[in-house]
Amino acid sequence: MALSDGERRICDAVAERRNDVVALASTLIGFDTTARNVGDPPREEAALQEHLAGRLRAVGAEIDLWEPDAEALAGKPLVPPGLDFAGRPQLIARLRGAGGGRSLVLNGHIDVVSVEPRERWTSDPFAAEVRDGRLYGRGSCDMKGGIAAMALAAETLAHEGVRLAGDLVVATNTDEESSGAGGTAIVERGLRADAGIVTEATGFDVWVACRGSEYGVVRVPGRPGHAEVRQPGWRDGGAVNAIEKATVVVDAIRALRAEWAERDGLDHPYVSRPDLLPTLAAAGEWPVTYPAACDLTIAVMYVPRQADAAGRGAEIRREVEEWIARETAKDDWLAANPPTIEWWPNGVMPLEIAESEPIVGAMLGATEDVGRPGRLGGLDSWYDGATLTHLAGIPSIGYGPPGFDADGLSVAHMVDEFVPVDGLVACAQGIAVAAMRFCGVT
Question: Does one domain contain both 73 and 193?
Fold first, then answer.
């Protein structure tokens, strides 16, 4: 479908605001919103959210800017124990429609990963810089560029006097990189819509799926003893090296990963097969002592069909536990002293929405009509679209500029992270057109 005259006018208006979207993205990059651990002090989250709120208020949006109640959110999905939101507000800005149309939420997370090793950056990661058509800076693609594009799309519709039939909501949250708690916070605030677009850097693909993940720590027991003294067998009281026994667990992990690679029914059209790997290892009390235990942190990534009835990871946890127990029991020490697994309290859920959802067709058509590929896709990791879909019943796609695959290179989380400036403009155009088609225009 070709652009209507009204849609073309909006696309032209967005193109004329090219410098504005670069300036907004640059301003957002300038706020240090590095992802936090529980207990870390706030950074510049409040300043960033207040800046966005001010811009959206200026075009007529109703603003809800608040710090979530930590006690009220304790125990909710994706909220780590002890997390608070002091100094870290969330933002929901609503542009009221004329009525009778579908509502659409545009969502993005404001936190970014660490800039370390900072000395390797060509330019200051918090001072955005345009070089050769690319905007460099931490968060440029993941995902302050997408936030700038979606905010500019909403502003342009308002500036040009486009009255949507349904509400257009801009919602930005903290804590996606570290936990997912920010998405839960905006859902608990009452965010609801008929569909959502999360402006992750999809390279103009329309994400309809992502994998879920679970993390845990496998504790492999040993028995301490002097490393420089000959030890009898363990049945005779001798020392046992927990690091060496951890290799049995690693072999079991490799075997399950290989089994998943061959198992029927685990192929997915838009995400990779499930995966399992150790990511951290910690062991030892003294250089000349056999380690008493070895802790292996494991990452489990699983496809939507492996989720339990609640859409979460209980079944995949059980399978991993049973597999490791069975395989390590072939070792006589571990059969008598089995490893234990302590799972992290908040795994993230997979996402799969039907390709027939109206927002999917609206976004595919809009991005094609503004001259971009318009392909379906998915994310091997996780993003806030899963939270909105599962916890709020808002079928949410991912759609945004290049970044995870910018110019053929995945630059998310990298040193010298960038987003193509042309990509920001095209993203804002696609979102504006999709909003007009999905919400309706009076």
Answer: yes
